[in-house]
Each structure stands twice: as C-alpha cells, then as structure tokens.
Design a protein that fits this description.
Length: 188
C-alpha cells in the first residue's frame, strides 16, 4: 500500500523539492496530501521572497499540482484545531490536516516544530524531505529512480547532466538521497 504523506509548505516552497515530490507522487511511489492553507503559505512566501517570479507563474504551478494529483487536497480539518498543541501554534493546521487526511508522515524541514509527543497519539511521525526520500528508495528503488530520471529529463532549458543534477538535489538538502543514488550508480 502506498504511504500517505502530508507535505508542509516549506517542502513545497523549494522548486527542486516540489518537483521531486511531484514526480515521486506521479510515479505512484507515495500519496501526497496538502491543504489550501499550505498552498497559500508556500505561494505567498515565494511571491514575497522572489518578486522576480511572476505571480501568474506561481499560480500556474499550484494549479498544475492540483490538476495532476488526485485526492491530495485535505479539507474539513478545522474542527480538530482546538484540540491540538504544538511548539508553534501556527503549525497546528498542518497536524490537523495530516490527521484528517489520514497521513502516516508529515514531511517538513521543521522537525522541531512537530515533537513526537504530539504526533504519536495520532499515529504520525515527522521527517525531513531527505529522510522521506531515503525511506522511499528503500521501499521502491526502481520507482524512485524512474521518478528522478523523469524529473531530470524534464529539465530541458537548459538540459542538465547527472552530476549537476545531483548537485542541485544536494543544494535542496537531499544529501543522503544523493549519497544513496551514487552508491546505486543510478543512471538518472
């Protein structure tokens, strides 16, 4: 059975991580979950931090994500908010949506904001994008490598060689993932 993972806004903010997660989802390696609020967070932050990226392009990316991944949108989680507590109260919506969407994992760069004591009662764990992809490699190496091949092949303007692609993944924080891909001698 495919694992369901709720993606935090900080994962979707990065174009590289967002693209990796989308290719893995489209390959059927995992089932992504997100909420409108998460989409609002990453798109607003990207628009604020990168005024060089037209708002229309960000909106198009968001629309494409929604169009290409069925059943990823989690709605109706708001009644859970009052019963949840996290170090950063602004993250309670992520936990509530993950619970409501029946996720097994929250993928986030802010692990400290999701302590195990708050997640265990809901059968959830929080892991970094790198740890998540490493886990997916251990469960479905062929599917993950195929997704990376597809993503690299889509980078045509300009094309990117394997070495530079792996460096891009490392810059996005996927160090352990890249180390495994190198040991597998994956021709991605």
């Amino acid at each position: 059975m495919t694992i369901a993972a709720f993606l935090d806004a900080n994962v979707l903010y990065s174009a590289t991580l967002r693209s990796v997660m989308m290719e893995l989802a489209l390959a059927g390696v995992f089932r992504p979950l997100w909420s409108e609020r998460v989409h609002d967070e990453w798109t607003n932050a990207l628009g604020r931090d990168r005024p060089d990226i037209p708002r229309e392009r960000i909106a198009r990316t968001r629309a494409l994500m929604l169009a290409h991944v069925e059943d990823a949108m989690v709605a109706g989680y708001e009644p859970l908010l009052g019963a949840l507590s996290l170090p950063d109260p602004d993250d309670c919506h992520v936990l509530a949506a993950a619970i409501h969407g029946e996720a097994e994992i929250i993928v986030t760069a802010n692990i400290k904001d999701f302590p195990a004591s708050a997640l265990i009662p809901h059968n959830l764990t929080a892991i970094t994008p790198d740890t998540f992809v490493v886990r997916l490699i251990s469960e479905d190496p062929g599917g993950v490598i195929a997704a990376f091949k597809t993503q690299r092949a889509s980078l045509k303007h300009p094309p990117i060689n394997i070495a530079d692609y792996l460096t891009t993944l490392e810059r996005a924080g996927l160090d352990d993932t890249v180390a495994i891909l190198r040991t597998l001698d994956a021709n991605i």
